[in-house]
Design goal:
- The protein is an alpha+beta fold and 505 residues long.
- The protein has a single domain, classed as Orthogonal Bundle (Cytochrome p450).
- The protein is 54% helix and 9% strand.
- It has 20 helices and 11 strands.
- The strands form 4 sheets. A 4-stranded mixed sheet has the order 1-2-7-4. A 3-stranded antiparallel sheet has the order 3-11-8. A two-stranded antiparallel ribbon has the order 5-6.
- Helix 15 runs parallel beside helix 20 (455-472).
- The protein is globular.
- The chain starts with a helix and ends with a strand.
- GO terms for molecular function: heme binding; iron ion binding; steroid 11-beta-monooxygenase activity.
Length: 505
């Protein structure tokens, strides 16, 4: 029942335990259809070129890695809805239509696998750290994931940490009001890029560790600022490491590898300090109220301390930029679409008038706001693709794809395709409220049982942030032009936009 309630809040997708039950039912209900003998061979799939290392060299020389989302979009326009790609050590089949993703979902099995980031795994091995669910596969992944789901994805766990997110969002607005009051114009025009990093880190730390870092104060903790810098360095150095053998990188470009390892070391050091504080209090047996996800995992005693450390550190590292960027893009789109702002503000006002004390019930009364976040992630997905390895052969567009092939779903091209969305260039949150079939169209957090483990934290954090901001400010921007984006392992603006905040009295 816990999983069903969570699904009612966001409607989709199912929790892993429910998905696994569905898999077992399907396996007994019907056997897999035989592959068509008329299917074209794998080699017939349109390709971007046979020479993987020549393709890599071209991307490297032209700084094309920062424009992978645009390159993927062009390739779909050139080759159609399916093509093969070879870049360095990376070999994949790329798809973009929701119906193809639905077919892929049927072949992922109960232990879904996505592309392994070898550089991250190598750091864990080098430093003798355990891997969390992001890097694990098979039964190890499944056992950890099912335990984590109760505190991170299920509605009972979500309700516990919602007040923490709400407190930080309220404090952020208070901080903004203080800054506005110091301006004689009565407004504040600002590049909110770094402020959003501090906000998301403050929120993540509070939810995971149960402690505030003071990042919204005028003089934030230098160690926390160092952590943010380390996360950004880790993401920046990850991208080129995806396509090259690590041994080659360590030999040819040791600086890149050293930067990557040092960044992860800072991330783990910061996490370890917070973890030790909680663990010491836990060992003392002090009576506590709810004090964050890690404390709950320790109380459950179902995961080893090393596994808890690994998973909490991954959640912390993934919860900063990957939430800050969607918030920045959402504020920009609301600033240049004031009519959407007005509709959202009216929805929030109507929800407030119902007097909900339960934050989950309040958020459940804001379908348009949920649609606005989906619309932002359609146009600006944090990760530009989702990967799976089918456990059985599959036919897509009459091409035979063998089991074990890396298949990538192009999220950026899908979100901007007129074959998938009507008027895709238009920011229209209401499109998600219509009765048309939106299955496998909102995939920014992945799909199935291997969807992003931090999904609920991110969704609730973004919703509560926007609720507090829209209650208190009108947002405007001088530039109405489309924002230019670059891919640095996550999608981000090339130049952060300037936004103007005008208090609502």
């Amino acid at each position: 029942m816990q999983g069903v309630t969570c699904c009612q809040l966001w409607r989709k997708p199912l929790l892993p335990a429910q998905v696994q039950h569905l898999y077992r039912w399907l396996s007994t209900a019907r056997s897999a259809p035989a592959l068509s003998p008329k299917a074209l061979p794998f080699e017939a799939i349109p390709s971007t070129g046979r020479s993987a290392w020549l393709n890599f060299y071209r991307l490297w020389r032209t700084d094309g890695f920062q424009n992978l989302h645009h390159a993927m979009d062009r390739n779909f326009q050139l080759h159609g809805p399916i093509y093969r790609e070879n870049v360095g050590t990376h070999h994949s089949v790329n798809i973009m239509l929701p119906k193809d993703v639905a077919e892929l979902f049927q072949t992922e099995g109960i232990f879904p696998r996505r592309m392994r980031i070898e550089a991250w795994a190598a750091h864990r091995q080098l430093r003798n750290h355990k891997c969390g669910v992001f890097l694990l596969n098979g039964e190890d992944w499944r056992s950890d994931r099912l335990i984590l789901n109760k505190e991170v994805m299920g509605m009972v766990g979500v309700k516990k940490f919602l007040p923490f997110l709400n407190e930080v969002a309220h404090d952020f607005v208070t901080c903004m009001q203080r800054r506005v009051s110091k301006n004689t114009r009565g407004t504040l025009t600002v590049d909110l890029h770094s402020d959003l990093f501090r906000f998301t880190m403050e929120s993540s730390s509070y939810v995971l560790y149960g402690e505030r870092l003071g990042l919204l104060e005028e003089n934030p903790n230098p160690e926390s600022i160092q952590f943010i810098s380390a996360v950004q360095t880790m993401l920046r150095t990850t991208l080129p490491l995806l396509y090259m053998p690590l041994e080659f990188v360590q030999w040819v470009n040791s600086k890149l590898w050293t930067e990557h390892v040092n960044a992860w070391d800072v991330i783990f050091k910061h996490a370890d300090k917070s973890i030790q504080n909680i663990y010491q209090e836990f060992c003392l047996g002090q009576q506590r109220n709810y004090c964050g996800i890690m404390a709950e995992l320790l109380l459950q005693g179902e995961l080893s301390l090393d596994s808890i450390k690994a998973n909490i550190t991954e959640l912390m590292a993934g919860g900063v930029d990957t939430t800050a960027m969607p918030l920045l893009f959402t504020l920009f789109e609301l600033a240049r679409n004031p009519h959407v702002q007005t509709l959202l503000r009216e929805e929030i006002k109507a929800a407030d008038s119902q007097g909900h004390q339960d934050l989950a019930k309040l958020l459940n009364c804001l379908p348009l706001l949920k649609g606005a976040i989906k619309e932002t992630l359609r146009l600006y997905p944090v990760g530009i693709s989702v990967q799976r390895y089918p456990i059985k052969d599959v036919i897509l567009h009459n091409y035979h794809i063998p089991a074990g092939t890396l298949v990538q779903v192009g999220l950026y091209p899908m979100g901007r395709s007129p074959d998938v969305f009507s008027k895709p260039e238009r920011y229209d949150p209401e499109r998600w409220l219509k009765k048309e079939d939106n299955s496998f169209k909102a995939l920014a957090f992945g799909f199935g049982s291997r969807q992003c483990i931090g999904r609920r934290i991110a969704e609730m954090e973004m919703m509560l942030f926007l609720v507090h901001v829209l209650r208190n400010f009108k947002i405007a921007t001088v530039s109405k032009a489309d924002i230019k984006t670059v891919f640095r392992f996550i999608l981000m603006p090339e130049n952060p936009p300037l936004l103007t905040f005008q208090p609502i009295h």
